[in-house]
Amino acid sequence: MTFFTLILKNLLRRPLRSLLTIIGVAIGIGAVVALTSIAWGFEWGMTNVYRARGTDLIVTKTTSRSAMPVPFPAKIQDEVRTLPHVREISGVLGDIVSIEDSPAILLFGWDPQSFLWAHLKLVKGQWPGETTNKVVAVGTIAAEMLGKSVGDKIQIETGEYTVCGIFTSSALAENGALVLPLAEMQALTDRNGLVNFLNVQVTPATTPEEVEQLRLSIKTRFKGLTAFSPGEVAQSNTAIQMAKAMSLATSLIALVVGTVGIMNTILMSVFERLQEIGVLLALGWRRGRIMQMILCESLALSFAGGIAGCVLGLVAVRLLQASPWIHGKLEGQFNPGVLGLALLIALVLGALGGVYPAWIGSRMSPVTALRHE
Question: Global pTM?
């Protein structure tokens, strides 16, 4: 019998107990994979929106503590436009609203002449114009969710709007969104003259140092406002940071439970095999090899749980993405880094859970072990 065959035999001695331990680890690792991919998906989705729009800097309120920043006067964009290296600027008023049967949909207000429309592709219909009222452009995913097409009516808050066009975007979040003319959005939300984002494009030859100088100028000149790069705006968003913190806290709890489960299983296995361990010691096995055997059993359980947890996490995120609350708003970020981290955590769990049982088993006196009933 080989060393690894002996390890497998020991794990299959109590198959139900081993299976329950694997399931416990899988739930913990599945929580890590699912929550991490969702948190990263939120951040990636927000960053991708601004990159798709060709936005170099996003000006917004620094005191915001909600998913959408606090609105501020749109006239500020006229002053920002006069600063060096500013090529284009466009104000955006965004909100998350409940529309008909969909509980939460992104709703934006854009100026009909804004550069923001350039990255969108019109699938059917036409874009909202400055002279048209009560019309809305709908992303392909939002149109599918709401069951709407060009010419259909949509009830948004207290107003009824006609779908004038269906569009698609390289940013998933925008495909699940609706876009109104800015003035219409301001009137609908009773925020006349207000926006909560300024999208800034800099001139093509602008250096990183000049962009940084522009950021400092905006922060100094306009109290309460600051400018972020597309990557930084997601990192500074309170809602995303809260999602990351909740993901970390929940994952830690699940991992602690998994560690305790592995330790309990391996410890019980050691006590059940004291005579066997005594025989191995009497045959000349070194205490280090006994410890190695018990640690390998623990690592085998945690690795199997890690593989199952990765699959469980992937399935959970796919189901969440299909739900009305999440569909069209984020895409889970699955990459080798996330899955590799999950498996590494699983192995660390196995090591932590197996250290104490391995120490107990390796320190046992052969005589005492052989006398154990």
Answer: 0.66
